[in-house]
UniProtKB/TrEMBL annotation:
InterPro entries associated with the record: ConA-like_dom_sf (IPR013320), Laminin_G (IPR001791)
Protein name: Uncharacterized protein LOC106817092
One Pfam family per UniProt: Laminin_G_2
Organism field: Priapulus caudatus
PROSITE patterns on file: LAM_G_DOMAIN
Gene3D superfamilies, alphabetized: 2.60.120.200
């Protein structure tokens, strides 16, 4: 499926999925070249990769095996400026916060 516009990381994005094997859940590339990708790895771990404004990151979400043929809910949320969280079935991981963003900004 091709979306007419890219998903915004401002606010809240959510999707539900069910799988029994690893594979890509979502990939998007903006006109600026920024990318966002969610993938369930073969071991059932959720991988999130992004490239935005020259900064790149990878997050392995600590949720249990997601390739279990059960429904799961993924929530990607910016709760306030520079604070981004990724939750799967109510298990939340911090993707970005002001101290992480400062470290990334210092390297670019």
């Amino acid at each position: 499926m091709v979306l007419r516009s890219t998903l915004s990381v401002q606010g809240h994005t959510s999707l539900s999925f069910r799988t029994c094997a690893g594979g890509e859940l979502l990939y998007q590339r903006g006109d600026s070249g920024d990318t966002l990708r969610f993938e369930v790895l073969n071991n059932g771990t959720l991988l999130m990769e992004w490239l935005a404004g020259g900064a790149a990151g990878v997050v392995l979400h600590p949720a249990r095996n997601l390739a279990d043929n059960q429904w799961h809910v993924l929530d990607f949320r910016q709760s306030r400026p520079l604070v981004v969280t990724l939750a799967v079935d109510a298990t939340t991981a911090v993707v970005s916060n002001p101290s992480v963003t400062d470290m990334i900004s210092d390297k670019t």
